[in-house]
Design goal:
about 280 residues; 9 helices
Length: about 280
């Protein structure tokens, strides 16, 4: 019996996690057509359909869900074997500060993958506001920081980019806007730079609004959106997991992209921190 092809498995997992070939291709350094051919060969080898394909992207079939579990274990074992041969053994304790806008539903899965790949590495993750992470870049109580910045045409501050996403106005599926009434805005505390930017956009376009609900974090904001309490602005990966509960709004001003980036290395940081940062560039992308 022939073994699975590791590159085909890696492509399959990346596409399943990204939700489409177009989003997965850049991180794999492959064209969409080459990626599609790899997936076709994998399905042919496995003898089952692994992905449902549709206009909105792809999602694993029941057989695909089962293979993902095996594929992650196989790939993690392969990576550990190679690192052992090269003498790389990431072990120790490391503190990571992450903005709560970054792929909220994917953080737990990312940590599981890292634990499988580096069982001796103990990662502690704190969810914080981007401004707090950047203010504490040099002497904060964390080793690596991941923050979000608005791409507005000005030079971005120093950092290691890992991902760009669209910003969009969103509301609950049942929300109905009354044109004559102020826009009911769902927001976060004033120390959130994105929330300040949203209000500035509305004021610049002379769109009246009222803060209808203030949440303490992105999870609370998502719940308020699903409940139909008003309108807010989220990056693509922070949309509620059940996307059928929310919808984009097209009558409000267009918005720029946001960029997620890792803070640059600190002077005199431990070798372990640098190695993990390099690894996170691919994991977080």
């Amino acid at each position: 019996m022939r073994p699975f092809d590791l590159e085909q498995l890696r492509s399959f997992v990346a596409v399943a996690e990204a939700g489409s070939l177009s989003r997965a291709a850049p991180g794999l350094f492959r064209s969409q057509s080459a990626l599609s051919e790899q997936l076709r060969k994998l399905e042919e080898f496995a003898g089952v359909i692994l992905l449902h394909r549709g206009k909105k992207g792809v999602r694993p079939t029941p057989a695909g869900e089962r293979l993902i579990v095996h594929a992650r274990e196989i790939l993690a074992a392969s990576d550990r074997a190679l690192e052992d041969m090269r003498g790389l053994d990431l072990a120790g304790e490391l503190r990571l500060a992450v903005t709560d806008y970054f792929r909220p539903t994917a953080i737990a899965e990312m940590l599981r993958r890292l634990r499988r790949r580096y069982p001796k590495l103990r990662l502690h993750v704190a969810i914080r506001k981007s401004l707090q992470i950047e203010w504490e870049a040099q002497d904060g109580d964390f080793d690596i920081g991941l923050s979000m910045r608005i791409v507005d045409g000005r030079s971005l501050r120093e950092g290691i980019p890992v991902r760009r996403e669209a910003l969009m106005w969103v509301a609950g599926r049942e929300f109905q806007h009354e044109p004559e009434a102020p826009l009911p805005l769902l927001g976060l505390p004033q120390d959130c730079s994105l929330q300040r930017f949203i209000r500035q956009v509305l004021e610049t376009h002379e769109i009246p609004y009222v803060v209808a609900h203030s949440a303490s974090g992105v999870a609370g904001l998502q719940s308020a959106l699903v409940a139909g309490l008003g309108v807010s602005c989220l990056n693509a990966s922070a949309m509620p997991k059940d996307t059928g509960t929310c919808r984009p709004l097209d009558f409000l001003p267009s918005l720029p992209e946001v960029e997620f980036s890792l803070l640059p290395p600190r002077v005199g940081e431990a070798t372990l921190v640098g190695e993990v940062r390099t690894m996170l560039v691919s994991e977080l992308g």
